[in-house]
Amino acid sequence: MAQEIEQYLMLKFRNGLDGKDKSISKIPRYNQFxxxxxxxxxxxxxxxxxxxxxxxxxxxxxxxxxxxxxxxxKHGFNSPEDLLTINRIRRELNKIKRELKATKxxxxxxxxxxxxxxxxxxxxxxxxxxxxxxxxxxxxxxGFDDNVVSMExxxxxxxxxxxxxxxxxxxxxxxxxxxxCQLIFNKAEVKNNFLPRxxxxxxxxxxxxxxxxxxxxxxxxxxxxxxxxMVNFIFNEKSGLQGLLCALYxxxxxxxxxxxxxxxxxxxxxxxxxxxxxxxxxxxxxxxxFGLPKGDGGRVxxxxxxxxxxxxxxxxxxxxxxxxxxxxxxxWKIFKDAVENDLILSNPPNLEDLKLEINQxxxxxxxxxxMMGQAMQEELPK
Length: 382
Known about the structure:
α10 packs across α11. The chain folds into 3 domains: about 1-125, no CATH class; about 140-320, Rossmann fold (3-Layer(aba) Sandwich); about 330-380, no CATH class. The chain is α/β, with parallel strands linked by helices. The protein is flat and about 70 Å long. The protein has a 5-stranded parallel beta sheet with strand order 2-3-4-1-5, sandwiched between helices. The protein has helices spanning about 1-20, 30-45, 55-75, 80-105, 115-125, 145-155, 175-185, 190-195, 210-225, 230-235, 240-250, 305-315, 330-340, 340-345, 350-360, 365-380; strands at about 165-170, 195-200, 260, 300-305, 320.
């Protein structure tokens, strides 16, 4: 019976993609759906039983396929929310594709590409995300100049040179919080003033199945150069989270460090008041802040969509709010870079109207402007 359910869901997904309705090819992420369908066909054609996790993926794929059809019927993606929805779908489809590829390779281990090579390729795709401090091309980032200057001043101000400081960058999804941090993190003057500099994504990693507090502190220690075997030894032999936070403190003490805590989401008060110091009536594992030395000019930048959470971590007076881009020129440049075709957009007759339309539809969100450009790029003839 279980296999019949998977077969039914697979048939429904294939019929949706391969139907006679030619408008299906216009739905968002159509090519991704086709790639996933090909992987599923290979998996179902195998003589091995279909993995139980495939059912959940097929339920999701059928639901999100319907969602994309509904977006198409709106005759254009006319709101930032639609564009961010498409971006969310893109990320989920990429994740499903990686997982299906791994499943297929288990069933067909000698399909011409080594398992090790596939894992490395998959890892490279996974790493190019907010989990990295990748150097962004600042010539392709628009509208952030004032924000970069003000954040640099906050980090480098001389009057608080030797004091700990935590700053929060807040704003809605797609507004550029991570991009702004990457620009600052890789500035030459910032590099010269802070050592070590580490980047830690606070969101739960797909492979994490442990307490997020443990996962984050372990991630920080690894970023600081502590081998994973040693991190696990500290956890197992030195009183768990308490030992990890003590080790983190020892790694940072006496150093003018810079730590980016990107995409903070956990609202537990354990993460609050990062400027707090360990006192006699407290234990190491009573607060995240106790792993961060306070006397040598260390800096922490927190990014979050949740302003109240950021306030809890860094204090209301240290919040930097990112606002939508107000300059149509910035949104236009982001859109144009994403299209990657200067011939198409070099001199349209209604240029100013088009710029205004892009700015209105993306709502001043850089990610939405980028998604609009990518959508147009996919529609262009190859």
